[in-house]
Design goal:
Blueprint lengths: L1 H8 L4 H7 L19 H7 L2 H6 L12 H19 L11 H28 L6 H26 L7 H7 L2 H79 L1 H21 L5 E2 H19 L3 E9 L5 E2 L5 H11 L6 E10 L2 E9 L13 H13 L4 E8 L2 E9 L2
Parallel strand pairs: 2-4
Antiparallel strand pairs: 1-3, 4-5, 5-7, 6-7
Helix pairs in contact: 5-6, 6-7, 6-9, 8-9, 9-10, 9-11, 9-13, 10-11
């Protein structure tokens, strides 16, 4: 008990126990979605080697029920003494009632100490830093068990051999005192071992539950973040296309009417094709082509916009509207209302490896309202980090008056 007290006062347990005993149920979801998960402690905790390997087995996707270790312990306690009674020479074994009681009596007392610590003392006292109360409660428990043992051996069984009372009555003076002290010290050490095992078991169980809780919360936050990004995509895209229609109204009303029909068709496609978490490459390319046609209607012959598509398997699924920000950015910075402009888009898929390369002329817009934000590209990178971590390469470069952006994704 003294060793346990010193360990506790030196704070070896409290860094972890403080996290374990905190009322995490009152934590609310973040009001603003975040993608960083910047708490390095939780990151390391979630991605430690053992947890990653355990996740490969379906039976370990949830914490082991708390009754399972207790059930296994009770099976061991009940079966192990019987194994000790087996005569491996195949001779018959005679077992009387007193032998069974004496055999299971220490196990019964150990179970009392273990159960009391596991259910009440550790949770109510130790985890709340009431160390003196915890030690005192165990000492009282030891006194109670010693008294109960003496009662069972001397009164109920009327077989006092081995009891402290029989040692005190029958033994010599020096022998009596030494044996009694040694028995009590041995019982104290036995209780200390049980307490340390209890603490280790409880902390380990809380560790597993906390890991599962954090993984669940991280998944919930990720899903809310993705929903937040998905809600941003449609308003952002609609904002850009409505700007196109507004510009057409000043140039050609008939073109503006055609543009309204095209944007209606485009938005209908987006509405029905992107309602799921994933869409086919064919649908993604179709949306891009409709958007490019709408832009051509706006700028006319002033812009040379070409798209080249080569898909080995156009049914491979991809995150909806993932490539749209690259094209929008090319139109935003690569098209000039007066000067000739050029946009070239190449989309290629081979062996589940997707490449989207966009080349456009560069006309930086300074102090332009349309230049505010940059939501599209920012969202694209966040979605890439969520859906394709360590499986994509995004590069940008500028050579003279041309701007290049390239996105490679491993879809396997």
């Amino acid at each position: 008990m003294w060793v346990l007290s010193k360990l506790c006062h030196r704070g070896l347990f409290w860094g972890y126990i403080k996290v374990m005993t905190k009322d995490i149920a009152h934590k609310s979801k973040p009001s603003k979605p975040t993608f960083g998960f910047e708490d390095k402690r939780l990151h390391a905790f979630l991605h430690e080697y053992e947890l990653i390997n355990l996740d490969k087995f379906g039976i370990f996707t949830k914490p082991i029920p708390s009754f399972v270790p207790a059930l296994l312990a009770w099976i061991f306690f009940l079966v192990f003494p019987l194994i000790l009674l087996i005569d491996w020479k195949s001779r018959p074994v005679e077992i009387v009632g007193d032998d069974i009681v004496r055999l299971y009596l220490p196990i019964f007392f150990a179970a009392i100490i273990f159960g009391m610590n596991q259910r009440f003392l550790i949770v109510k006292l130790f985890f709340r830093r009431k160390i003196k109360s915890y030690i005192g409660a165990n000492l009282l428990l030891i006194i109670f068990i010693i008294g109960l043992r003496e009662l069972i051996l001397n009164i109920l069984l009327q077989s006092p051999n081995g009891s402290l009372y029989s040692i005190y009555i029958k033994g010599e003076a020096g022998y009596r005192l030494g044996t009694i002290i040694l028995s009590i010290v041995a019982f104290l050490l036995f209780t200390l071992i049980i307490c340390l095992l209890n603490i280790s078991f409880r902390v380990s169980a809380n560790h597993t539950r906390f890991a599962y809780w954090v993984r669940q919360k991280q998944n919930e936050i990720l899903q809310s973040d993705l929903a937040f990004l998905k809600m941003q995509l449609s308003p952002h895209f609609l904002f850009n296309t409505l700007n196109n229609i507004a510009a057409l109204m000043d140039i050609d009303v008939k073109k503006a009417q055609n543009g309204i029909l095209q944007i209606s068709s485009l938005l209908r496609t987006i509405l029905y094709e992107t309602k799921d978490d994933m869409i086919s490459l064919k649908s993604e390319v179709m949306i891009l082509e409709k958007y490019i046609e709408l832009e051509k209607l706006r700028f006319g012959s002033n812009v040379n916009c070409q798209i080249e598509v080569s898909l080995e398997n156009d049914q491979i699924e991809i995150v909806p509207l993932l490539l749209m920000p690259l094209v929008e950015n090319a139109v935003k910075h690569g098209v000039h209302p007066i000067h000739p402009s050029k946009i070239f888009i190449r989309i290629e898929e081979k062996n589940r490896h997707l490449l989207c390369r966009v080349e456009n002329s560069m006309f930086p817009r300074k102090n332009s309202p349309g230049n505010v934000g940059g939501i599209g590209l920012s969202n694209m990178q966040k979605r890439l980090d969520c859906f394709y971590p360590n499986r994509y390469k995004y590069k940008i470069a500028r050579e003279g008056e041309m701007y290049f952006s390239s996105l490679e994704i491993d879809l396997s």
